[in-house]
Write a structure and sequence with these properties.
By secondary structure, this protein is an alpha+beta fold. Helix content is 28%, strand content 40%. The chain contains two helices and seven strands, in the order βββββββαα. Strand 2 and strand 3 form a beta hairpin. The longest helix is centred in the last third of the chain and has 21 residues. It is flat and about 60 Å long. It starts with 5 loop residues before the first strand and ends with a helix.
Length: 131
């Protein structure tokens, strides 16, 4: 099997941790050393959020807003470490929901579900360097 020819190397920033990553892009459009999600627009400069309507989200009525100022389009890249961390968090969260159910609205010390979700939050805080 012939070796893939490298087309180019690009430098991007992880939008989660801000670490610089160098991505290798191959001629068949595959890439290595990062995870690309899409482009997104972020607000820049002066402007306000203007209410343009309402919508239902998780059974609650929420405002729909639009940014009135300028926007900058950026590529959404994550480094391998941030991507792996998020996938592990997602796995653990799904497992907790399967075993204990969704997180309770109010914390109660004697509730096994609340205790499990409290441990989950401690793990997440530790991994993100908040402890």
């Amino acid at each position: 099997m012939p070796k893939q020819k490298t087309v180019r190397k690009i430098n991007r920033k992880c939008l989660v941790c801000s670490k610089r990553i160098q991505i290798t892009i191959y001629s068949d459009r595959h890439y290595r050393n990062g995870h690309y999600f899409n482009t997104m627009k972020i607000p820049v400069g002066k402007g306000d959020y203007k209410k343009v309507g309402t919508s239902k989200l998780l059974g609650k009525k929420v405002d729909v807003v639009k940014w009135t100022g300028k926007e900058k389009e950026v590529e959404y890249w994550e480094c391998n470490d941030c991507y792996e961390e998020a996938s592990h968090e997602s796995w653990l969260e799904e497992l907790l929901e399967k075993l204990y159910g969704k997180k309770c609205k109010d914390y109660e010390k004697s509730c096994a579900c609340c205790q499990a979700w409290s441990i989950y939050e401690t793990i997440i805080d530790h991994n993100r360097g908040r402890l």
